[in-house]
UniProtKB/TrEMBL annotation:
SUPFAM superfamilies: S-adenosyl-L-methionine-dependent methyltransferases (SSF53335). One of its GO terms (molecular function) is demethylmenaquinone methyltransferase activity. Keywords: Methyltransferase, Transferase. Residues 78-168 form the Methyltransferase type domain. Residues 1-35 are annotated as: Disordered. The keyword Ligase does not apply. GO terms for biological process: methylation. The lineage of its organism: Bacteria, Bacillati, Actinomycetota, Actinomycetes, Kitasatosporales. This is Demethylmenaquinone methyltransferase. InterPro entries: Methyltransf_11 (IPR013216), SAM-dependent_MTases_sf (IPR029063). It is an enzyme of class 2 (transferase). It comes from Streptomyces hundungensis. Its EC number is 2.1.1.163. It holds the Pfam family Methyltransf_11.
Length: 299
């Protein structure tokens, strides 16, 4: 297989996974970590790109997430990291009173337009602008994947839910299912190295992305009667749509793709098309196996 080295042409966007803090001391408890800083850059201005690509795959576990949080008519629910508003919209459809927050202003604007019946505002974990015990339930769909201090984030979700109120979260499982690793395989096949470093929280803040790992995180953050289960599904999506999410710079792999010169992006795309063959179900559509973890507990 021909492996292409990284070229010297101008890049499409700045190199990812760099931080001004490198070499400096560890940030204090209220300060964003290097991982948080990378995430802020990654999501900035990408609501449209997310809505038209990866929002679809993240929508799959939403009914189970809302069931786990017992979201129904009259429940006062907070959806954290609401993105383009998928969970907020589904919660509104159940008759809940919905507040949504996100760290990215572009997402806040998008969700506010998409779900006008919800109250959407800017807020960044692990600090939420709500009183202790204000909500009956809190949800966070594929948000823990993007915070630098997951334990502090869960503790903050616990703080804003009332005693007995429920918290439900989803997280991408490790090891990844075959459909999730397709883009990363294409990058490696093109001879491009995926970064380690800032593509994950600092080791002392991280936790295993497994059933016991996520359950342990919730329990150690003060939640009670914690349960965690794997969720598996097949996401059907046009190959061009899946590629577009990465080409727009979404996710760790997307940041790598978008920061490479056009010649290398084309080579990654070529390998993506070759590797997609095993998932193709006809007319350019892929069936991509995915695995997530769904965990819940109460205050
Ligand atoms: C994978 S998207 C999920 C969006 C939405 N929950 C959904 O199901 O489609 C992750 C979202 O979390 C937001 N996010 C990342 N870090 C955050 C933080 N520290 N506080 C609040 N939101 C955050 C991002 O801006 C992005 O909108």
């Amino acid at each position: 297989m021909h492996a292409m080295g990284e070229g010297s042409e101008p890049t499409a966007s700045p190199a990812p996974f760099t931080s001004k803090r490198r070499g400096r001391s560890r940030p204090g408890p209220g300060e964003p970590t290097d991982f948080d800083a990378v995430q802020r850059l990654m999501w900035a201005g990408r609501a449209q790109a997310y809505a038209s690509s990866f929002a679809g795959v993240c929508a799959h576990p939403v009914p189970q997430l809302l069931d786990a949080a017992r979201v129904g008519a009259g429940v006062r629910v907070l959806d954290v990291g609401t993105g383009t508003g998928t969970v907020a919209e589904a919660a509104c459809a159940r008759g809940a009173g919905v507040t949504g927050v996100d760290a990215e202003v572009d997402m806040v604007d998008w969700a506010a337009r998409a779900v006008p019946q919800a109250a959407i505002q800017l807020a960044v974990l692990p600090q939420l602008p709500f009183a202790d015990g204000f909500f009956d339930a809190v949800t966070a769909n594929f948000v823990l994947d993007h915070v630098g201090r997951p334990g502090a984030a869960i503790a903050e979700l616990r703080r804003v839910v009332r005693p007995g109120g429920r918290i439900a979260v989803t997280l991408w499982a490790v090891p990844e299912a075959a459909g999730q690793s397709l883009l990363g395989r294409a990058v490696r096949a093109a001879g491009v190295t995926l970064p380690s470093g800032l593509s994950a929280p600092a080791a002392e803040d991280d936790f295993p992305r497994t059933v016991p790992g996520l359950a342990g995180l919730l329990t150690s953050s003060g939640l009670r009667d914690v349960t965690c289960e794997p969720v598996h599904w097949e996401h059907r999506v046009p190959a061009d749509t899946w590629w577009a999410g990465a080409a727009a710079g979404l996710g760790t792999v997307g940041q790598v793709v978008a920061s490479r010169p056009e010649r290398i992006r084309a080579e990654i795309r070529r390998h993506f098309d070759l590797l997609s063959a095993e998932f193709t179900i006809g007319r350019g559509e892929l069936a991509l196996p995915h695995s997530a973890l769904l965990a819940c507990g109460h205050r």
